[in-house]
Specification:
Blueprint (H helix, E strand, L loop, with lengths): L30 H26 L5 E8 L5 E9 L5 E9 L5 E10 L6 E9 L6 E9 L2
Antiparallel strand pairs: 1-2, 2-5, 3-4, 3-6
């Protein structure tokens, strides 16, 4: 005799006994294993992020423009300050821009701190091919 819709509770499938193998019991989860896998994954991602930051991040090389003077049709003089590791060197890219924002000149300057010093103040002339409006330091990186 087969079961009909009237004898089966809705939502619970009925399978003939012994035909499809043993069924798993619902609710058997492993939350501890899942938490352990997530913790290991987060630790590995943290180590990778720290390694990449050490390799590519340069938080110790910061530059700020003190002033720019000596503006003529062919140059601008930029006074700037660079923070480097104690006694370190940096290569900085300086540029001059015209009033409309176009780059009219750029130059790289290498600065070196005295032993034990972290800050270097430097003056660099940036040659231009048109009258500049502003001189600025784009970025500094380790010299070499």
């Amino acid at each position: 005799m087969s079961e009909t819709h009237a004898t089966v509770t809705p939502g619970a499938p009925v399978f003939p006994p012994g035909r499809y193998g043993r069924r798993r019991q619902p609710g058997r989860r492993r939350p501890l294993l899942l938490a352990l896998v997530v913790a290991v994954l987060l630790a590995v991602l943290g180590l990778v992020a720290a390694k990449l930051y050490q390799q590519y991040g340069d938080p110790e090389y910061r530059a700020e423009v003190i002033t720019y003077t000596g503006i003529t049709d062919t140059r601008v003089v930029v006074d700037f300050r660079v923070t480097v590791p104690p006694g370190g060197s940096a290569t900085c890219l300086l540029r001059a821009r015209s009033h409309d924002g176009a780059e009219v000149g750029h130059v790289e300057a290498t600065v070196t701190a005295r032993p034990g010093q972290r800050h270097v103040t430097a003056r660099q002339e940036v040659p231009t091919n048109a009258r500049p409006f502003i001189g600025e330091v784009l970025r500094c990186r380790p010299a070499g």
